[in-house]
Amino acid sequence: MSTFRLARVAGLIALLILPAAATNAEPKANQLFGAKDTASRQKSQPIGFYSQGCAAGNVELPESGPTWQAMRLSRNRNWGQPVMIDFIKDLSAYATTVGWKGLYIGDISQPRGGPMTSGHASHQIGLDVDIWMKPVSSLRLSRRDREKISSINVRAENQKSVNGNWTAAHAAILKKAALDPRVDRIFVTPPVKIEFCKTASRKDRKWLQKIRPIYGHNYHFHVRLKCPKGSKGCVTQKPTVNELSKGKDGCDSTLQWWVTDYLNPPKATKPAKPSKPAPKKKSARDFTMEDLPGQCGAVLSSR
Ligand SMILES: [Zn+2]
């Protein structure tokens, strides 16, 4: 190899290595938040956005209660803002009125919120919770059971409808959650939304707007709460076009997006032009402290 070529190769290698070294120098926020196993001793406050923030003064959801059990305890994600803990207690109590013993609770947030080393882009400010679709069979599950047991799928194989696991109790619990003024939106597998669109009464459909179809979410539903009053550092989610046009229940757009566009994509008439790839958005897993609101530093360093 000529000296010239050698120098070029060396230059290329340096180009490849240097940016990596530079990003390695800055610790990832998910490692920092993931290392904290207790809440910050601060006034409770969600800080930032659901997918880019942290949580001051989170509260631990007791691992077991009269109407709930937290699952996958090894993850230590049964922490949330007080409004979230109250909401979970209330909804799980309601579940007992429709024939369930309560609710199995999946991830809420880490003790101090923040980005996570695995799973979820959101769940960062203590206002998101995953609730299992599996009806509660026992509230006396051991820690080991809670690692091993799986939830159940409510989506049919053709992906267009719910399957036999879907019950009137599921529908009642989800509707109750949607009617709760603390709730901003609920993410579900599209067939659940389609089922609601078919079965909801014509006069009582306003709450349907809060039920949002999204990929996955056939083993659990995800409840997102609004920023509580007075929490100035909390960034409210922008309403979608749907929400802005009053009275819309989102049923047409769900069917359009999921059944028509996603499951049966229209055949392209012309070959699509290769378009420039959109600039890649930084994922929550790559965030450093600089990507989070400034107050998150104090959340992390608090006792
Ligand atoms: Zn979730």
Automatic annotation (TrEMBL):
One of its GO terms (cellular component) is outer membrane-bounded periplasmic space. Disulfide bonds join 197-251, 227-234. The keyword Chloroplast does not apply. It comes from Aliiruegeria lutimaris. GO terms for biological process: proteolysis. Keywords: Disulfide bond, Hydrolase, Metal-binding, Metalloprotease, Periplasm, Protease, Signal, Zinc. Residues 1-25 form the signal peptide. Residues 264-303 are annotated as: Disordered. One of its GO terms (molecular function) is metallopeptidase activity. Pfam families: Peptidase_M74 (PF03411). This is Murein endopeptidase. Metallo peptidase. MEROPS family M74.
